[in-house]
Design goal:
Order of helices and strands: HEHEHEHEHEHHEHEHEHEHHE
CATH topology of the largest domain: Rossmann fold
Strand order of the largest sheet: 1-2-10-7-8-9
Shape: globular
Strand content: 15-25%
Largest sheet: 6 strands, mixed
Number of domains: 2
Structural class: alpha/beta
Number of helices: 12
Length: 289
């Protein structure tokens, strides 16, 4: 396995948005540009993998076995890390193998990840499913990494985000899937009351709030994971024209839509300063945007 020092020592910039809408509303919005940490392994995936890769190197194991769906940014990031740092990557994919692979799964294969497909019912019971256990037994030299990288080492990586921010702020916003990034940030007890999660899945806000102890906004998932509308895509196009910051429609695009809608509706008082985390995942961006 190759040296990791150039990987885990990186920090991302903080960019203030200077656009007429925010100026009219007298709200300051900064983006923590974790999408710039690495050209492929970016955003919260970089944060979640950071200490997991350090631990993998220490363990002497040959690689990682992990889990995700057909559009999983996590699978993509693990595959990219495996290629860059020369370790084996294995992905167990939710659902039968589709006739046409998603761009994410195609990229995983191109980067050398071994993919195995299991039924959705088997995937839901993966901790106790014999089919999944058999796949894992085929790779005894690999460490198991949970879906979305959701473990203590991943949360530790997310904690580091806070130490890089040097300006005071009133809210820290992050898009939520598994909630690992939000939970990691919430480990800083003094920050918890400032955290605001935006669920990109339908109907899991109560679960996320219980897991993290933070407020989670449930109104901007657009029907569920990886679902979107023309309204969302139009917002992303206009946002990018004004800010020159690239978004995708699965995570950060939804959070930004929600933030701007809440600002428009007066949720945030004049003078409020907001930090919004760009969680990367731009390989999943729709070509039609």
């Amino acid at each position: 396995m190759k040296d990791l020092s150039t990987f885990y020592e990186r920090k991302s910039p903080l960019q203030k948005l200077d656009i007429p809408f925010l100026n009219r509303k007298k709200v300051e919005l900064y983006i923590k540009r974790d999408d710039l940490l690495h050209p492929i392994i970016s955003g919260n995936k970089w944060r979640k993998l950071k200490y997991n890769l350090v631990e993998l190197q220490k363990s002497g194991k040959e690689g990682l076995v992990t889990f995700g769906g057909a559009f999983s940014n996590h699978l993509h990031a693990v595959a990219a890390a495996g290629k860059e740092f020369d370790f084996k990557s294995v992905g167990i994919v939710r659902g039968a193998k589709p006739e046409f692979l998603s761009t994410t799964l195609k990229a995983c294969l191109e980067m050398g990840m071994d993919l195995y497909y299991v039924s959705r019912s088997a995937y839901r019971m993966k901790e106790n499913c014999e089919d999944v256990r058999e796949i894992i037994r085929q790779h005894p030299s690999c460490t198991i990494l949970p879906e979305g990288g959701a473990n203590e080492l991943a949360m530790r990586g997310c904690v580091d985000i806070v130490s890089e921010i040097e300006v005071p702020y009133d809210f820290f916003c992050v898009a939520c899937g598994t909630g690992t990034t939000l939970a990691g940030l919430a480990q800083n007890g003094g920050l918890r009351h400032k955290l605001l999660g935006f669920s990109v899945l339908k109907g899991i806000e109560s679960e996320l709030e219980e897991k993290t102890g933070c407020k989670v906004v449930p109104d901007y998932h657009f029907g569920g994971y990886a679902k979107y509308s023309n309204e969302l895509l139009d917002f992303i196009r206009n946002f990018e024209k004004e800010t020159e910051v690239t978004l995708e429609q699965v995570y950060t695009g939804k959070m930004m839509f929600g933030l701007f809608d809440m600002i428009q509706k007066g949720f945030f008082e004049e003078g409020t300063r907001i930090i919004a985390l760009h969680t990367g995942g731009l390989q999943g961006r729709l070509p039609i945007i």
